Amino acid sequence: MFGGIGIPELLLIFGILLLLFGAKKLPEIGKGLGEGIRSFKNSLSGEEEKEEKIVKTKELEPDIKENKKVEATEKEKAEA
Prior knowledge:
The protein is mainly alpha-helical and 80 residues long. The protein has helices spanning 7-21, 25-45, 48-79. It is elongated and about 70 Å long.
């Protein structure tokens, strides 16, 4: 399969990782590895700008929601 590593070996490796890190930590580790690989590929292909725009947009979303809440409470105070 993968250069001599078969399904039984992969299951053994997965089992050892499960014992070492626990069931809750494995998804976090996988997510971190995936993000690292993705950023490495993006840096090689030069797609950094797109990712930065997406991250900036996501960072601004909570501010926009918070501003709307503040505006709503200000309107309620003005009406009262």
